[in-house]
Amino acid sequence: MERNALMERLFDVFLASIRYSKRYDSSPRSYGTEDVLYAEECHTLELIGKYEGITITEIARRVGKTKSAISQMVDRLIKKGLLEKQPNPESERTVLLKITPKGEIVFRYHAQYDRDQFDKLCEHLEGFSNRELATYMEIQREIIKWIKDSNNR
């Protein structure tokens, strides 16, 4: 196959990957409680569970979203009883985020779900050599770099 045709197929696979990833992210799921969460909400809860006392500003910086978007998501998670805000003793302008006992259930359930998915992926890809996987990671990093560069134009 000539290079141009191969690159077109690569791009098609790349776009399909984005579509399936978006579909996954937009599918609500339950993680051990009656609450339904989207992947983005669950990953925000995961950050707060790992870094208790993190601020909205720090979450926004880590995930590349605006403080306003994170604040709205945090408010939704608070309404579901998964998070709580605590005063920051070092600054009156910020609050610290803490996971609630109910949020801890979701946090642990999601961590197990991720481990299970990782194990399934490893099993699914076991036919590929370490070299092939390393090449894939190298290509994927270049694609991510290209996307970042394209977004900064």
How would you describe this structure to a colleague?
The chain has 153 residues and is α+β, with helices and mostly antiparallel strands. The protein has a domain at 26-127: Winged helix-like DNA-binding domain superfamily/Winged helix DNA-binding domain (Arc Repressor Mutant, subunit A), CATH 1.10.10. The chain has six helices and four strands; from the N terminus they run H-E-E-H-H-H-E-E-H-H. The chain has helices spanning 3-25, 39-50, 56-63, 67-79, 101-124, 130-151, and strands spanning 29-30, 36-37, 83-88, 91-99. Strands 1-2 form a two-stranded antiparallel ribbon. Strand 1 and strand 2 (36-37) form a beta hairpin. Helix 2 packs across helix 5 and helix 3 (56-63) crosses helix 4 (67-79). The two termini are 32 Å apart.
Task: Provide keyphrases for this structure.
153 residues, Arc Repressor Mutant, subunit A, two-stranded antiparallel ribbon, two-stranded antiparallel sheet, 6 helices, 67% helix, globular, WH-like_DNA-bd_sf
Describe what is shown at a glance:
By secondary structure, the chain is an alpha+beta fold.
So, the CATH homologous superfamily of the domain at 26-127?
Answer: Winged helix-like DNA-binding domain superfamily/Winged helix DNA-binding domain
- Assess the beta-strand content as a share of residues: 5-15%
Q: Give start-end ranges of low-pLDDT stretches.
A: none
* CA-CA gap between termini: 32 Å
SSE ordering: HEEHHHEEHH
The third-level CATH topology of the domain at 26-127 is: Arc Repressor Mutant, subunit A
CATH class descriptor of the domain at 26-127: Mainly Alpha
Shape: globular
